[in-house]
Give the backbone structure.
Amino acid sequence: MPTISSDQINSDYDVIVVGSGAGGGQTAYTLAMEGVKVLMLEAGRSYDPVTETPMFQGLKSAPLRGGGTPDKPFGFYDSTVDGGWTVPGEPYVRASKGRENQFNWWRSRMMGGRTNHWGRLSFRNGQYDFKPKSRDGLGFDWPLDYKDIEPYYDKVEQLIGVYGNNDGLENTPNSSPGVLLPPPAPRVGERYVQKHAKGIGIPIVAAHRAVLTKRQDAENLPAKLHPGNEKAQRVLKQAMQSRAACFWATDCGRGCSIKATYQSTTVHLPPALATGNLDIVPDAMVREVMVGDDGKAKGILFVDKTTGKEVRVKARAVVLAASAAETVRIMLNSRSKVFPEGVANSTGLVGKYLMDTVGAGLQGQFPALENLPPMNEDGAGGAHVYAPWWLYKQQLAGDLNFARGYHIELRSGRPPDMGTGAGLDKLNGGGNWGQPFKEDVRRYHGSFIGFAGRGEMIPNERSFCELDPVVKDKWGIPVLRFHWEWSDHELNQAAHMQKTFKDIIEASGGKVWGKLPAAQGRDAIHPGGDIIHEVGGALMGADRTKSVTDQWNRTWDVPNLYLTDGAPFVSNADKNPTLTLMALAWRASDHLIGELKRGNI
Amino acid sequence: MTTPFSERLDRRTAIKWIATAAASATMMPRLAAQVQATTEPEVTIVGAYEGPGYGTDPDLLKDYAPGDLWPLTFDDQQRQTAAVLCGLIIPADARSPSAADLKIHDLLDEWVSSPYPQQAGDRLIILEGLGRLDMLAMSEYGRNFAELGNADQGTLCDRLAKQMPMPEAPTEADQELQKTQRFFKRFRELTAGAFFTTPEGLKDIGYRGNVPLAVFPKPPADLLRRLGLEVD
């Protein structure tokens, strides 16, 4: 990835973008393609998936057979470098010790951030998801409607490439005709569960994931995405031609050297750089937004990690996309005469209403799937199917003891790992060894399917972050302190997930494997942050006294400061946030371009 | 009781690892490096693991072998016992070689020698267990496990492969046997995981992925029919 060092920074940038992940990548892409001069600051090192991805390395080549460690929590071959649940030299703080009050903060200090390893699930929020308070009285409504963001969903899906079907299910929007790529054929286990779940009323349909199941239409898409902009079209055409279709091997979490999946480092940043309008400085740890006496953002103060020196850089506008909590941290650390409590924080709401996704899981063992014949089930390196939330009507009627929905992901397929052959003593009468054991491993491998629920958390007053009064990171920057609490809606939802999984498993002739469903939601739910869907902390709204940004992701207090990561999220629907975040970032960038053109900034 | 740690590891390191293992038993492994804030008892500072290991940015394209990243632990006797046990648990047959043929015991050595908290529990179980296995062999047959004939080794494996319920008034020998059974179970799991992630093991278990394809194939029609699924 071509980058510059801090002493090569120019003095004539229109916009500084902090962060290079989904939000920062989309923002820099949109701005640079439209001729805006952009400086991007990334806290981690530069990273190039084309040369660095361990595509075909087998687990035998990895230490500990690729298993997770504190240095590589999702396994040795996970694309995350210099990141994870903890980051050396960059502590964070939890306000209380209880498991239910735990918030785990995943950071990826690298170019492209978390887009390098994410699951690529790309679901649209539906109409209900933008007006949740109007529907059930809880949380907040967004200051925009589905129809406002719909064209941007189409644009992002066409840019990054998303497979899936238009199933027309409730609150699960269709894409415009021709936007989605064809989904891959479901695997045996996925088909098996699909059939039996249908029998108990649970629809399993094609997943939507940002993987190219065929090459992009490089002839026609650029003109659709950048009408009237020949340079952008030319650049995008080249970028799209450089992406290969999925070759049905290797796990997307490793990253993708053939650029078949979306990651910011292969899809957003290369064309943005090719315009000549984007400079990227890696190893730039942003400390604060500099604010002038007029209350406007002047630029950014960051620590150059390669020299340890503080660097100040100016621009006409600043966009924060550092990840929801890191953006909050930068804002709270940006104290000035005009904003003594942090930039754009006149309401005191910065850091409030932090959300994650509700997560719970269960595993099943299916006798019908024992002794499957040898076959290649790698597929698109992730889920081919999923179950969107199917109980909207029952929920609205008050038949459930939680207010919002969840979707089901299932993991079927057969790459062996260090867990292969474990626990078979529960199936084969207490444990054996030798030839009978070897044959049992063959028999049972592939007969397990994991179920994961991903559900909506309703924002609450007790889940937030603030600056810790004492603790600082290795650059002397104050760190975040997290407060976390679930409401009964989330806890009951987690219990419902496990019960549903048990129902599906048993309806499919299987048995719950390993941990049984918990009686209490608190024992079923993953700790906060575990699903790595951290959003909120600087909510958008229609009323400037009750929100941090307007519907354009622009802070109410500072007209030239935008937030284009998950921070402005008003709710966190069960739909994984990345696609929505990118659609909002594109929309916000269009607005910012307009403001720059109109001379308002 | 045989000493669980070899000379290749100095005592200071061994003590540190035992301490890590003890500490990690009560916490989530990934949070092993939590530090307590002194001022507020309810508050936890979440710091990072900064001990030995491959670091947060290792070379992912390199081929690693046991011993490349941290010193191994097994002494000659432990290594020999582990190799024999690997070969017994997963023997050679028409489809694949034995776990001993594939030197799975070397991976187990790398595993128990890991500096990370995730393996600290296994380190104790495996190193102590190898000693227990030899003690059991010695008390029954007067020789170390690896030196026994195949039939005697098999008799001991039969006794260890199934976890027995603890009697109501367990003797010290009962407790010792149960610990050795727990070791056997964990050793078997690690051996299987390590074996079936080798190229030979992947082939054996019917894994046919990790090769580029032009088209992702649908499952075979006869399999779909067998499972009562629609053939599309």
